[in-house]
């Protein structure tokens, strides 16, 4: 089991950032790498247990199940059901915390998963930078332009 | 129950921030509101259960106990044992988190406690603003200075009437006198008028051998190195302002508070914007601290207006310092 942790500061109030990221079906609106997304079986995107099925710009398809969603803690977690990444037992959590000084947002995103040892470093890099940090960078631009 | 929560982002890696915050006795080095602090019984400042005993610069005294410390989670939890503030059941937590996007640190500081009914808002602002937010700023500045103490305030040009020999009024000379920057536990006063007492005249004439020093007038060991009085006659009205320096608390020798007061009388006769020192007796400067000063008009003749005197607490830039009168220090006779 390895853990990848990425955190950043978003220059917008936490409730505004949360309004963006709480939509489990909203990845195409704020990440640079998701082309389209839908929730399977017509479920609402904030129903615990729903599955998002999205296609990456590079063509890969990922299915993820919503495990927790807290409008109180500004936190959600989800598990990968299917993906081209070759990971097992992948569970990720995205959490926002208000920064009272400057009315900004501290954003954390971490994942735990299993993979063959020789792939650990490359996957940690890919997920930590290529996914989480890239999404944060994109999110900064999206909320700045609101 | 009041809950106070404040957070900030510090522009330094978590390792540097935590190295300071995990030391339960470091706050006097970086927090602008905290005066002297010591861990009781010589315990280590990262020993869970240790007690820090400290004085705020506004004079309040607090004892706090470390309840939990985690180097893994970067969390420190502590509570107040005793305080001269009316706060009860105060438990606070400091938590740091790494900001991987840039070498920064997220810092959350929160607490719950009780205060007397009707004072909730006052204490929410006090703790959130003057403790937590001021602490964020103070620690960020401390890290930028690389842990060095803040630069001292500059000396200020002022004028004083100085006598270097005994004699009549002709020995008095108006000259420039440096008012050096106050150190911890000292204050610098901007004085709109300076004092005359019969005793000053006696000293000038050389009649008072016991006070035969350059500290003319004002109660020899309460004023060190400052300009003193020196006009020949007191104003006919006798009008003046009493200046009370409450020098309290012997810090390093147990919890027993000792107080000592000195009253300085200044005339209403406006003179040169002079600065004077009030400080602890020089020989025991490390053991005493000035925690507050009060100005009070003395009943006086017709038309008397007390001069507008400002008193500042030490070791703060003048702009940020707190006038002592806002701290509620009052002359004991006016109570």
Annotate the secondary structure layout:
The complex is a heterodimer of chains A (146) and B (335).
Chain A (H helix, E strand, L loop, with lengths): L1 E9 L3 H8 L5 H4 L3 E6 L11 E6 L4 E10 L4 E8 L5 E12 L4 E11 L5 H25 L2
Antiparallel strand pairs in A: 1-7, 2-3, 3-4, 4-5, 5-6, 6-7
Chain B lengths: L1 E9 L3 H8 L5 H4 L3 E6 L11 E6 L4 E10 L4 E9 L4 E12 L4 E11 L5 H25 L11 E8 L8 E8 L7 E7 L4 H8 L34 E9 L10 E9 L2 E9 L10 E9 L12 E3 L23
Antiparallel strand pairs in B: 1-7, 2-3, 3-4, 4-5, 5-6, 6-7, 8-9, 10-13, 10-15, 11-12, 11-14
Structure commentary:
The complex is a heterodimer of chains A (146) and B (335). Chain A is an alpha+beta fold and 146 residues long. Chain A has three helices and seven strands. Chain A has a seven-stranded antiparallel sheet. In chain A, a hairpin with a 4-residue loop joins strand 4 and strand 5 (75-82). The N and C termini of chain A lie far apart (38 Å). The mean pLDDT of chain A is 95. Helix content of chain B is 13%, strand content 37%. Chain B has a seven-stranded antiparallel sheet with strand order 1-7-6-5-4-3-2. Chain B has a three-stranded antiparallel sheet with strand order 13-10-15, with no helix packed on it. The two termini of chain B are 32 Å apart. Chain B has 335 residues and is mainly β. Chain B is elongated and about 70 Å long. The chains are: A alpha+beta (146), B mainly beta (335). Chains A and B meet through strand 1, strand 6, strand 7 and helix 3 of A and strand 1, strand 6 and strand 7 of B.
